[in-house]
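Please check both lines for our workbook:

___
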Amino acid sequence: MIKVEWFYWLCGIFFVLIAAQVINDRSNPKRIGSAAFWGILGLSFGYGTFVVNKQAPSWLLGIAVIGLALLAGAGFPGRGKERTTSPEERMRFADRFGNKLFLPALVIPVVAAIFGAWLAKVHVGDGKLLLQSGSATIIGLGVASLLALAVGMVLLKPKSPAVPLHEGRRLLEHIGWTAILPQMLATLGLLFNASGVGTAVGRVTDHLIPKGSLIAAVALYCIGMAVFTIIMGNAFAAFPVMTAAVGWPLLVQQFDGTPAVVFAIGMLAGFCGTLCTPMAANFNLVPAALLEMKDQYGPIKAQVPTAVPLLACNIVLMYVFAF
């Protein structure tokens, strides 16, 4: 059986190697704190396996998360001298390879889809699943990333096998601490759900929604998904909260809505919130950082005029097709 934790270990090794590079980079004025940030993150991936197997205490991971937050608040990680190609070299690559440069990127969705749709159902000789149950998509993404790396190496033939590591570090230093924000926010959503926030929100909605009003319940669910996504930065984090409060008890149980339609459109409503929040760092702050935009909130300002009418469309679609 292929286990998902193998790929978590690989991620951990990658971050530890980044930390080793940073600590030896004298051009980085924040190299100590930056190396500590990436090192703690990398070691957490490996240590998590022992926590899941109940072989180590989980509170150490909590301290690691607090440490990462403190380092981020102190302005870490910083950026050192970049070891990358020049604009002229990139133009030569573009002229030489043309659309072939997209091959590594296209490998990832194709391979991940194969793993999620087909290999997830394959059994090995002893009757066990080939891929760890419930983790086929993540495993597929990990395998796809490795294959994309291999395709890129064969296609571009870099001078050193360390080039991908240097480029990975360059991207991480551009993105900074926001690289781990989606992971933290997804965990926050689970904590909200476990602490009963969804139940508390449900009590509040009982007083807001007129009895028997379907359109009010639909609007509240969709708008709530968008608002919680704006707060937490991740529609997947908002989903358990709003579904426990409104989606399941009202739209499905009380109004007999079709669950697949309700929850699919509910997620789309949440994504409208993603377009409007700096908390969704991977969608909004990261592109601004990578493109070195003067206005770091430029992507959000450009997306809000689309997000608001799209949210209204989702409310209409759910009201028409889910009931």
Summary: The first helix runs from residue 5 to 23. The chain has a mean pLDDT of 85. The two ends are 42 Å apart (CA to CA). The chain has 14 helices and no strands.
